Amino acid sequence: MGFGSPEFVLSIIGMAMFAGVLKSAIRARHGFEDPHPHAGGKRARRNEIARLRDQNTGIVASLREDNARLTHRLESYEDRLRVLERIVTDNSYNLASEIEQLRDRREKA
After folding, report:
1. Domain residue limits, the chain
2. Is the pLDDT of residue 3 over 80?
3. Which residues does UniProt call coiled coil (predicted)?
């Protein structure tokens, strides 16, 4: 078997492939990231999409809770504003006259 023979070339290719598979298995067993982020094809993309969907689901749920809380606060502020508007517009003359009556009573006493 010479250096230029097909058997020698194929044995080198086989050893390189075996070393790559062994290296990937060791990295996976110890929890290291894949140094080739685009490796894995469709399965890796599906896993990434699923991970992002789960992450976005949590974010969306949090935003919905914040939206509901803020909507409730806004409604309570609108109710308070309606009450204040009613006090200012409906009873402004009566309120002023009552204040004047109280002042007159204080002056008389």
Report:
1. 1-39, 43-109
2. no
3. 60-87
